[in-house]
Amino acid sequence: MPSFLRKRKLIVFLVGIILVVSLIGYSLRSDSGESLPAQFAIDTVGFFQNILHTPLNYFVEIFDSVGEIKNVYEQNKVLKEELQDYKTLAYQVSELETENEELRAMAEVESTLTDYETLNAAVVARSPERWFQQVTINRGKQHGVEANMAVRTAEGMVGKVINASQLTSTVQLLSGFGTEHQVSAIVDGDDSIFGLVEGYDSDTEKLVFRELTGEDELEEGQAVVTSGLGGVFPRGILIGEVSSIELDSYGLTKVAYVEPAANLQDISQVMVVDRDLHSTVIDEEEEEE
Amino acid sequence: MKVFLLPLFMFIFFVTQSVAAELIPQSFWLGSLYYIPHWTLIFAILIVTFYDREHSYVGLLNGLAFAILTDLVYTNLLGVYFLAYGLALYMVHVLKRYLHKNLLVVLLFSVLGLAAAEVLIYSLYFIIGQVDLSFNAYLFNRLIPTLLVNILFLLIIYPIFIKKLVKWKYELEK
Question: Which of the following CATH numbers is that of domain A183-260: 3.30.200.20, 3.40.630.10, 3.30.390.50, 2.40.10.350?
Answer without folding.
Answer: 2.40.10.350
